[in-house]
Design goal:
Radius of gyration: 18 Å
Helix content: 40-55%
Strand content: 5-15%
Number of helices: 6
Structural class: mainly alpha
Order of helices and strands: EEHHEHEHHH
Number of domains: 1
Largest sheet: 2 strands, antiparallel
Strand order of the largest sheet: 1-2
């Protein structure tokens, strides 16, 4: 299944959605292709909340990237470590929930949720839905004139 990289603001509003590419690619590699690393290194600085697929992005961009914690112990972890890791993981998840809701909002569109067409058209559909969401958000911000 093709996959796209989605960038949202802290409220979950979609800011950018990359063209769909084959899913057999690591997230961070997929982010390098549309120039995300270069854009983040020259753009405004701020904290980025990312999922585990983007670990190491901060070292490439110089921007603080917050990802879920690594597991230090793979096997036979002490009880205190399991509890600490779970607290850190939940804290990160709580901070990222609006971002995840923004991504899920894209998936609510039937054209993306039940895509039965050709894979070659998926990129155009993703870009069209992103444009519609952007237009819808802009239209919601413009006050309507009442007489």
């Amino acid at each position: 299944m093709p996959k796209s990289m989605v960038v949202t603001d802290r409220e979950g509003h979609v800011l950018f959605c990359s063209p769909a590419k084959p899913g057999s690619c690591a997230d961070i590699t997929h982010g390098r292709r549309p120039g995300l690393v270069r854009l983040l290194s020259v753009g405004p600085t701020g904290e980025i909340l990312a999922d585990a697929g983007y670990q190491g992005l901060g070292a490439q961009t110089g921007v603080p990237v917050v990802t879920p914690p690594h597991r230090t112990f793979k096997k036979n972890a002490p009880d205190w470590y399991e509890e600490m890791h779970e607290r850190q993981r939940k804290a990160h998840s709580s901070r990222r929930i609006r971002v995840e809701h923004g991504i899920a909002h894209l998936k609510n569109w039937r054209a993306l949720a039940r895509h039965l067409g050709r894979r070659e058209h998926m990129s155009n559909i993703v870009q069209a839905v992103t444009g519609l969401l952007s237009h819808q958000r802009t239209a919601d911000l413009i006050p309507t004139r009442q007489t």
